[in-house]
Design goal:
alpha+beta
Amino acid sequence: MKIKQIKHTNNLFKFMLEEWKLIHPEHYGEELDYSYWHTQRLYFEAIEGKKIIGGLIDEFFGGVLYIPEIIVAKKNRGKNIGGSLIKKAENWVKTHRGHEVFLYTGKNWTEKIFYLTLGYQIVSEVPRFYSKIDFVLMRKFLD
């Protein structure tokens, strides 16, 4: 046996899909179509006039949305732009058979309070995470 790193190939993709179909019902009790398990990258932007004032990038997989990035222009913070971006993403999740959103944020960052006010709960602390800074994992169930 030899293990090597490769670029995405159709052969590997086909193998993974065929094998997953064999164990999928055993793990989840039903077979869900592959699009449910294929990662979709989503982008939402807030625009004022012709200028972007906020953005959210996320990934949807298996009914769960992960938010790795949300940024609101510094001079526009506190105007519910971030909340509106997240609400738009949450509504998208609900209409695509999703049930949960999760994210990481700095343990001592003010953004943690922002997410708590939106109904997110702290699941665990993640010490020395990105750039060796303490983070928290937060999630919100949508159903």
